[in-house]
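PROTOCOL LOG
Step 1. Enter all chains and additional molecules of the complex.
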Amino acid sequence: AQSVAQPEDQVNVAEGNPLTVKCTYSVSGNPYLFWYVQYPNRGLQFLLKYITGDNLVKGSYGFEAEFNKSQTSFHLKKPSALVSDSALYFCAVRNPRGGSQGNLIFGKGTKLSVKP
Amino acid sequence: NAGVTQTPKFRILKIGQSMTLQCTQDMNHNYMYWYRQDPGMGLKLIYYSVGAGITDKGEVPNGYNVSRSTTEDFPLRLELAAPSQTSVYFCASSVGAPYNEQFFGPGTRLTVL
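Step 2. Run joint prediction.
Step 3. Record the structure below.
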């Protein structure tokens, strides 16, 4: 069965410091991987995705993520955190196969808190 | 472009009542989805549609029904509301290929008492 794990419920970072939000996955074959962000009382917004190719992908608002196939991880990173980055972050995985196996599976979310 | 819109924003239902959550997208996306978000649980897929006239069950379809008569609209129906359906409901849409990102609406917060 496909699954996504976000091992940290909350990550606390000081403004200006680098941040990492962790994600590991379990899916057969080569997955499609996504990061979404949710601000309070809002829907999810797409940040970035890995489909194929370069393991380091860059996305919106200065975020990037590194795909590591051997560790089945897709950690989200940013070199210098901003207070405005405080939000709930979701990792999601999709099996490239179609049908119900191709549905997007979300992690439980990690709350990022950036303090001034 | 309004993107994905959902109505209502909030609703309180009594046990056994029914209601329809509305979802509309103006991006001409063929795929549409309904998710529910419970605290600390991430999003779970309720139903999805790959085009007008075609719908299929997701992970948690029990207690819900959907229809897709047009490309733009994908309403979610709750027939006999139960407290277990208290949740935040999100509609999303995407262009068909599985590597494309989904666009989400602002959500409907539903409480069943």
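Step 4. Note key features.
Chain A has a mean pLDDT of 92.
The first strand of chain A starts at residue 3 and ends at 5.
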